[in-house]
From TrEMBL:
InterPro entries: ExoRNase_PH_dom1, ExoRNase_PH_dom2, ExoRNase_PH_dom2_sf, PNPase/RNase_PH_dom_sf, Ribosomal_Su5_D2-typ_SF, RNase_PH, RNase_PH_bac-type, RNase_PH_CS. It comes from the Bacteria. This is Ribonuclease PH. Keywords: Nucleotidyltransferase, RNA-binding, rRNA processing, Transferase, tRNA processing, tRNA-binding. Phosphate binds at residues 86, 124-126. It comes from Tardiphaga alba. Its EC number is 2.7.7.56. Residues 10-140, 163-228 form the Exoribonuclease phosphorolytic domain. NCBIfam families: RNasePH. One of its GO terms (molecular function) is tRNA nucleotidyltransferase activity.
């Protein structure tokens, strides 16, 4: 029995509320159970210096957790004077994932910055961030379309596919979908899957926390992830409809 009493293939309650921030070109409040992340997308008419003059844009991300997103207060990274390794790794993952969804040439010489701020953490903050970030990104691109910021022949090509992410793991010998903290902290195996709307893989992060896992177990986790991502993509489509 899972601590949450969910079935092995059952997601937590998921909600994606778009347009929640007045000033951002795109935004989404994403909730995976008790994990809540505020995501904003900001359009900037600038590029990293190494991209200037190449005729394509860029999508990047920043990630952070508020001090009381967790059971005990976590010191702000700004107060420490640097970002932690986990933060850097997660924001790079978010950026890589979203760039797979965008035709950077069709975007033009502009940058979209995605900010993911974890308000409350109960496991799966990176997967929730990626899933909500796609909605904020779609919101931003729709904002640009409404202002005729793309060439007519490329407007519908900018956002190529949906992107969503979900965690899976082996908990007490059973492959399960969408781990909360109680499971994540005790799981034998913990994995994160980032996929496109049609089930193609962008990234897999998998670690044996206790017992090494087999190829057969990996395939079972991937099957669960594909099922979960399919449901998340349906929710994304409803959110931006």
């Amino acid at each position: 029995m899972r601590p949450s009493r969910r079935a092995p293939d059952e997601l937590r309650a998921v909600s994606l509320e778009r347009g929640v921030v007045k000033y951002a070109e795109g935004s989404c409040m994403v909730k995976f159970g008790d994990t809540h992340v505020l995501v904003t997308a900001t359009l900037e008419e600038r590029l990293p210096p190494w991209l200037k003059g190449q005729g394509r844009g860029w999508v990047t991300a920043e990630y952070g957790m508020l001090p009381r997103a967790t059971l005990e207060r976590t010191r702000r990274e700004a107060a420490a004077g640097k970002q932690g390794g986990r933060t850097v790794e997660i924001q790079r993952l978010i950026g890589r994932s979203l760039r797979a969804a965008v035709d950077l040439e069709a975007l033009g010489e502009r940058q979209i910055t995605i900010d993911c701020d974890v308000i409350q953490a109960d496991g799966g903050t990176r997967t929730a961030s990626i899933t909500g970030a796609w909605v904020a990104l779609a919101d931003c691109i729709a904002w640009m379309k409404s202002r005729n910021m793309f060439k007519k022949d490329t407007a519908d090509k900018v956002l190529r596919t949906n992107i969503a992410a979900i965690s899976c793991g082996i908990y007490q010998g059973t492959p399960v979908l969408d781990l909360d903290y109680a499971e994540d902290s005790e799981a034998d195996t913990d994995a994160n899957f980032v996929m496109t709307g049609d089930g193609r893989i962008i990234e897999i992060q998998g670690t044996a926390e206790k017992e090494p896992f087999t190829q057969d177990e990996l395939m079972k986790l991937m099957a669960l992830a594909q099922q979960g991502v399919g449901k998340l993509v349906d929710l994304q489509k409803m959110a931006v409809a």
